[in-house]
Design goal:
alpha+beta, Rossmann fold, D-amino Acid Aminotransferase, Chain A, domain 1, 5-stranded parallel sheet, binds adenosine-5'-diphosphate
């Protein structure tokens, strides 16, 4: 049982975890950097501890500092949220070495699935289709060329430790592969501290469809429907919805069973997401994210399960609260990521003080955001300042509801991407559900 928990994160996800703790009657201790001092959400936790200067390397990414905070606060568990240390196997290891439960899978599992090339090998071993490409990292240029010619161009050069839509380069022929591979390695070394890359066939116009799973330590594992995250700008998710308008329930169930099989085969426990690419007929494993994801509320709305509470309960030793047959996704949910960025200036981040903030509400609307009028958005972190979600019986009604909610949303003082969401929700292709991962980039360049 967990009775006091440290939240090693900030912003909306820190607030989301505080809320779960308050409902579970668990004391919450939230850390914050000097950049986040005075943020209103900190007051909702039982305790807040300053862990250093605004740059994340000296605060939210500093393992010694966070462990010291956990010891001072005398907590029995740490929730890492997403980003920062969420998929850092060493952090999980240090937590457990200090007798602090890490809300997430074991360090060995995090390591195993965090290496994207190794994760593909695990998926293949579990009989799950993977995108054609190298078996593991490519060691030489000659090997890369051989794999690429066999898979057929275009191919992607992907960083083994990459993520968040970063660390990928496309090559259309031998010459561009040769030209890009060294650059890809150098970039991966700088961005992820690991130069290893692997090669994968680049699927033209796929959809990104992912499965939410929950697994306990006893080895039980369930899937909770799918989310379609194909509305992306430069490979970064902008809108997510569930169920996917393009995947039949039979295919979704196949993906779900494949996800469970993979998670069981790697000894996974906690909440996780198995990401697939879907070409309209077949699905291919892409990666297993060993954390709670930004878009988890889409699943919460359609499945009626509180994923953060489940995560914490599992970390405390509980078995799953639901059996697979009890999970019956209902209705339709859409999430718009609200970013402080300027759509008229190449989506440049727009930090600063929010002068006015009117949050939408009413039936079927959920806003997960730590932002209010007077809140100062620090320049140091990701530009996402909240998530607007709607739920309705059908996709058509959910779209109408999202348009209505977006029209109510007012944020002044900084630029936001709300206007972009309004455009997407009125785009004929989006409305028909006919979109792939290239839809938004094409809409923006048209
Ligand atoms: P994440 O951002 O979740 O870490 P990745 O960085 O692996 O995931 O992939 C991000 C996005 O890149 C995918 O959603 C998809 O749009 C695109 N992508 C990845 N691999 C491929 C591929 N082999 N073919 C086509 N698109 C791909």
């Amino acid at each position: 049982m967990i009775s006091r928990l440290l939240i090693a994160n900030r912003g909306e996800i820190a607030l989301r975890i505080i809320r779960a703790c308050n409902e579970l009657d668990i004391e919450s201790v939230v850390v914050y950097s000097q950049g986040d001092a005075g943020a209103p959400y900190l007051e909702l936790a039982d305790e807040a501890i300053c862990i250093g200067p605004a740059p994340s390397a000296q605060s939210y990414l500093s393992i010694p500092t966070i462990i010291s905070a956990a010891e001072i606060a005398n907590v029995d568990a740490v929730h890492p949220g997403y980003g920062f240390l969420a998929e850092n196997a060493h952090f999980a290891e240090v937590c457990r070495a200090n007798n602090i439960e890490f809300v997430g899978p074991d360090e060995e599992t995090i390591r195993k699935v965090g290496d994207k090339a190794e994760a593909k090998i695990s998926a293949k071993a579990a009989g799950i289709p993977v995108v054609e490409g190298s078996d593991g990292p490519v060691e030489s240029e000659a090997e890369a060329l051989e794999v690429a010619r066999k898979a057929g161009y275009p191919v992607l050069i992907k960083a083994v430790s990459g993520g968040g839509g970063r660390g990928m380069r496309i090559a259309h022929n031998d010459i561009s592969l040769q030209a890009n591979i060294q650059t890809a390695r150098a970039e991966a070394e700088i961005a992820f501290g690991d130069p290893s890359v692997y090669i994968e066939k680049y699927l033209e116009d796929p959809r990104h469809v992912e499965i939410q799973i929950l697994a306990d330590r006893k080895g039980d594992c369930i899937y909770l429907g799918e989310r379609d995250c194909s509305v992306q700008r430069r490979h970064q998710k902008v809108i997510e919805e569930g169920p996917s308008p393009a995947v039949s329930s039979a295919d979704a169930a196949k993906m779900g069973r494949a996800a469970v099989k993979l998670c069981k085969s790697v000894g996974y426990h906690g909440a996780g997401t198995v990401e697939f690419l879907y070409d309209g007929k077949k699905f291919y494993f892409m990666e297993l994210n060993a954390r709670i994801q930004v878009e988890h509320p889409v699943t919460e709305l359609i499945c009626g399960v509180d994923l953060i509470k489940e995560q914490i309960k599992i970390a405390g030793g509980a078995t799953l609260s639901h059996k697979q047959t009890q999970v019956r996704p209902k209705g339709h949910a859409i999430e718009c990521r609200i970013n402080a960025e300027d759509p008229d200036n190449n989506f440049a981040p727009s930090p600063g003080t929010v002068t006015k903030c009117i949050v939408p509400g009413g039936p079927g609307v959920r806003v997960d955001s730590h932002v209010c009028a007077g809140y100062r958005i620090p320049p140091n972190y990701d530009s996402m300042i909240g998530k607007l979600l709607v739920w309705a019986d059908t996709r058509e009604e959910a779209i109408v509801r999202m348009r209505r909610a977006l029209d109510e949303y007012v944020i002044e003082g900084v630029k936001t991407n709300i206007s972009l969401h309004r455009r997407i929700l009125r785009n004929a292709y989006f409305v028909r559900g006919e979109y792939t991962t290239s839809f938004l980039d094409e809409m923006l360049s048209a």
